[in-house]
Amino acid sequence: MKILDEIIHPGECKTVHLEIARLHTATKLKIPVIVARAKEEGPTIMLSAGLHGDELNGVDIVRQIVHKEINIPKKGTIICVPVINIFGFINQTREFPDGRDLNRVFPGSKTGSLAGRFAYYILEYIIPHVDFVIDFHAGGQSRFNVPQLRIAEDDKELLQPLAEIFHAPFLLYSSQIAGSFRNACAKRGVKMLLFEGGKSLDINPQVSKMGVEGTKRVLEHFGMLRDEFTTEDRVDKMEVIEQSIWVRAKISGLMHDQVAVGSFVRKGEPLAYISDPYGKENVAVKAPNSGFVINVNEAPIVYQGDAIFHLSKKLAHG
Fold first, then answer.
1. pLDDT computed for residue 318 by the predictor
2. Which of 181, 184, 160 is nearest to 172 (CA)?
3. Which three-class secondary structure state does DSSP give residue 252?
4. By the 8 A CB rule, do 192 and 166 touch?
5. Are 65 and 31 in contact (CB under 8 A)?
């Protein structure tokens, strides 16, 4: 296997580097791509995180997989890229220095913007070797995502069985977004499970554990998990969400007494309260329908129109 001009032989683990640009200080920036091959042939799985530089929980999941040597396969190849957006990771921001969201510029261009060039090189030099991707993300600023997997509804026959094996608490049908990494991979015949959990600039141990354990179950399914590792069975049900809605703030103010992420609420039940700082207003935010709370905005101050809860609307079982 030859990646970025480096040859990785069967039974070898090697870190190669994707180097595209430098900092304005002329300091070189290299993205480590950790490639581990077994002696026995098998599928190639890519584990990626840090597409948005401030989503640290995904970085921690892939880091743990490498640190514990789960990434050294029994057969096949595992490619780990813990931090794709190294610029955003350094600056603790979602975007690239050019202001672009890397997850909206795929397939990119060799001569385009900085983010576009990264997208191009990932697709041209890494993805051609890959059969299947698990890409790890977190919620946006102050928005905590309950651990969940996302797949396009068109892919459910192929990917839902793998999602059941990974077994996050929730599976959400989510349409492909133009310019996204997931969409670009799909167009090249490479399927992806997208994991969401936690919030930006935060590492949640429970989210990390779910991501690591789910990955181990998928690797075991493909016969790639080495014998010294065990997997934890999930006894709880994975809820499949076919439709969901965002609940937005009707007024600005201080938000408090939010319901817990992952909880089930009934229509009309208070999700939170928004108050003015002077003790005159205290307005309940009520659930427009019964469903699971899959994202909570934990910001103490919200403005009218802000997305404050993500609520399931239709489950696969009705």
1. 53
2. 160
3. coil
4. no
5. no
Show the tokens assigned to 200. 């930006």
Residue 144 CB-density burial (10 A; 0-12 exposed, 13-18 middle, 19+ buried): buried
Exposed (0-12), middle (13-18) or buried (19+): which is 290, by Cβ within 10 Å? Answer: middle
In the chain, the largest separation of any two C-alpha atoms, in whole Å, equals 70
The pTM of the whole model exceeds 0.85: yes
Report the alpha-carbon angle 215-108-43, nearest 5. Answer: 30
Query: 177 is written with which tokens?
Result: 């977004």
Which of the residue ranges 4-8, 43-47, 148-152 would you say has the lowest mean pLDDT? Answer: 4-8
131-160: average pLDDT: 94
Residue 59 · residue 50 · CB < 8 Å: yes
Element (H, E) at 148: strand 143-151
Residue range 51-79, pLDDT digits in tens: 999 999 999 999 999 999 999 999 999 99
Q: Buried (b) or exposed (e) across 189-201, using 16+ Cβ within 10 A? A: ebbbbbbbbbbbb
Residue 4 identity (one-letter amino acid): L
283-290 long-range CB contacts below 8 Å, 24 or more apart? 283/250, 283/251, 283/253, 285/247, 285/249, 285/250, 285/255, 285/309, 287/247, 287/311, 288/245, 288/247, 289/245, 289/313, 290/264, 290/265, 290/266
Helix/strand/coil for 61? helix
- Cα 179 from chain centre: 16
Q: What's 238's DSSP letter?
A: P
Assigned token pair, 295: 């994202």
